[in-house]
Amino acid sequence: MTGRGRFLAFDIGASGGRAVLGDLDGGRLALREVSRFPNRPISAGGHLCWDIPAQWEGILGALAVAALYPGRPIESVAVDTFGVDFALLAPDGGLLGRPVCYRDPRTQGAVESFFARLPRERVFELTGVQTLPINTLFQLHAMARERSPLLAAAAKLLFLPDLFGHFLTGVARSELTIASTSQMYDPRAKRWAPEILAALGLPEGLMPEVAPPGAALGSLRPSVAGLAGLPPLPVIAAAGHDTACAVAAVPAEDDRFAYVSCGTWSLVGIEVPRPVITPEAQAANFTNEGGAAGGFRLLKNVAGLWLVEECRRAFGDGPGNSLADLEAAAAAAPPFAALLDPDWPGFLCPPAMPSAIESYLRATDQRVPESRGGLLRVILDSLALKTRLVLDEIRSLTPRPMERVHLVGGGSRSDLLGRLIAEATGLPVLAGPAEATAAGNLLLQAAAARAISGPATIREVSRRSFPVRRFEPEGGPGPDRAFAAFKDLCRAEVPPHG
After folding, report:
1. What's 174's DSSP letter?
2. What are the angstrom distances between the C-alpha of 280 and each of 142, 233, 276, 390?
C-alpha cells in the first residue's frame, strides 16, 4: 500500500551535504535536489574538525528554498549523516567546541590503550561492533586520556544527525542506527553499555536516549520554521546513519542478496534478524549495526571511493581528469597490474593520495602504474577484490544465501566498478540507485507518515522508481589468481609510511 506525500531529506556526507525533496505518488518516488553545500574538515585548535556553523547555515538555506517549491506541502524533515562522529553539548544545550573529524590523528594508540582497560573480546561481546580507530569509543578515550576540558564540561553527547535534529527541534535524543555505530551500544540489551562507559570514566547520563528508526523527534522550532517560511513540521528520526538509509532502499525482491553501499566508504554486508556476536565474527572484525526496518546489518566497513576522490583532488581540474575520462582510461588499462589493500592505514588521511599509493606499491615490490588511468584501475580492481574477501568471510559466519549483489550509492554510477565486482565475486551485480541514501531517508519518512505500509513496500517503491543496471560475471582465471595475491597483501604488515 502506498499513498501520496512530499518529504524533505538532508543527507550530509563527508564531502558535502544536500537537501532532496521526495514526491511519493502512484507507488513511485521522484527526487529533486534543491540545495547542495560543501562539507570538508577544517583545521581548528590543532585538530581536523567539522564546520558545523557552515553546515547549519546550509540546512537553514535549504529549508527556505524547499519551502518555495510549488506543489503539495512538505510533510516532514529528516537528517542522515555518516557514523561515529559526535558533538558535546553544555548544560544549556549549546555546542561545546567543534566536533572532530574521524580522520584526525588523535586516536593514534587509543585502541591498544583502551583494550588495556577492557579487553577487545569483552568489548565485542557487549557491542558486536568491529574495531576501527575512528569509532566513537576510541575518540572518547583519546579525549579522556588527554583530560579534555570539553569532555569534563559536557552534559550530553549527540551524534551528528542528532545534533542537527537538536538544532531543528530543541530535542536532544539519538536514534538506533547511528547509536549502533559507536561501539558503545549493546544491541541485545538495547541500551548503552555501562561497562564500557565505566571503562571510559564517563557518566551514563552523558549518553542520549535512543529512539527507534522512524520515531518522531519533535517539530521545527518556531524560530527555524519562521526563517524558512514553513509551519512547525515534524522532524523524523528516520535513520540517522546514511548506510541504514541506503540499505533500506535496496531494490531487492527477496532476502537472498548482499549489498555494497559504496561512496567515500564501502559498506559490504547482509541483513540478519539478530546480531552475529561470535568469536569468529570478532576475529574477522565484522560489525552489527541496527537496521532501519528492524534486524541488523552484518557488515564490514572498508575504504571505498575515498582513494579515487583524493586522487582526483590531487590531479586537479586539468584536461583528462574528469571522472568519466579517468574511468575510461582505467577501463583500457591492464587488469591486476598491481594491487593494494584499500584499508592500509597510510590511506586514511595522507597529504597526497597518489604519493601514498606509490609508496605502498614500492613497499610491496609492485610496479607503479605510469598513467593516471592505470592508477585508478589499481584502486578499482582492489576494491572489487576486497568486496569478494568480505563476502567470503560472511559466508563463513552465516548460512544466509547470497545470490546477487546490490551495489548502491555513488559507486553504482561506475559501470567499470559494477563489472569488476561481478567478475571478482562471481555473482550478478545490480547497480542502483545511486541516490539510495536520500531515497531511503525519504521512504522511511513516508513509512512514518503511513503513506507506505512497511519495509517490503519501501523496496517495491524503490524498484519502481529507479533504474537498475545488471552486470553478469564472465568467468576466467584472472580474478582467482589476483585474489590469491590480494589475500596475501591484506595479511602483510606494511609500515604506515611505506
Report:
1. E
2. 28, 46, 9, 13
The answer to whether residue 279 sits within a structural domain is yes
Q: In whole angstroms, give the CA distance from residue 171 to residue 211.
A: 12
Which pTM does this prediction carry? 0.95
Could you tell me if residue 146 is inside a domain?
yes
Residues 73 and 176 in one domain: yes
How many domains does the structure of the chain reveal? 2
Q: Which one of 240, 262, 293 terminates a domain?
A: 240
Residues 59 and 162 in one domain: yes
Looking at the DSSP assignment, which residues form a beta bridge with residue 211?
175
Helix spans in 117-263 (H): 120-127, 136-145, 149-153, 160-169, 176-179, 194-200, 222-228, 242-248
Q: Examine residue 179 and state whether it is found in any structural domain, yes or no.
A: yes
> Any idea which residues carry the catalytic annotation?
242
- The span from the CA of 202 to the CA of 186, in Å, is 16
Q: What type of residue is 467?
A: P
Which phi and psi (to 5°) does residue 69 adopt? -70, 135
Place of cell 572518547: 140
Domain boundary among 217, 240, 263: 240
Same domain, 160 and 216: yes
Give pLDDT tens digits along the chain (498 positions).
579 999 999 999 988 999 999 999 999 999 999 999 999 899 998 999 999 999 999 999 999 999 999 999 999 999 999 999 999 999 999 999 999 999 999 999 999 999 999 999 999 999 999 999 999 999 999 999 999 999 999 999 999 999 999 999 999 999 999 999 999 999 999 999 999 999 999 999 999 999 999 999 999 999 999 999 999 999 999 999 999 999 999 999 999 999 999 999 999 999 999 999 999 999 999 999 999 988 999 999 999 999 999 999 999 988 888 889 999 999 999 999 999 999 999 999 899 999 999 999 999 999 999 999 999 999 999 999 999 999 999 999 999 899 999 999 999 999 999 999 999 999 999 999 999 999 999 999 999 999 999 889 999 999 999 999 999 998 888 899 999 999 999 999 888 754
Same domain, 229 and 267: no
- Residue 451 belongs to a domain: no
Read off the C-alpha cell for 196. Answer: 564500557
Same domain assignment for residues 102 and 177: yes
Residues 490 and 383 placed together within one structural domain of the fold: yes
Give the CATH number of the domain where residue 265 resides. Answer: 3.30.420.40
Separation of alpha carbons 166 and 161, rounded Å: 9
d(CA 96, CA 498): 38
Decide: 465 and 30 in contact? Cβ < 8 Å. yes
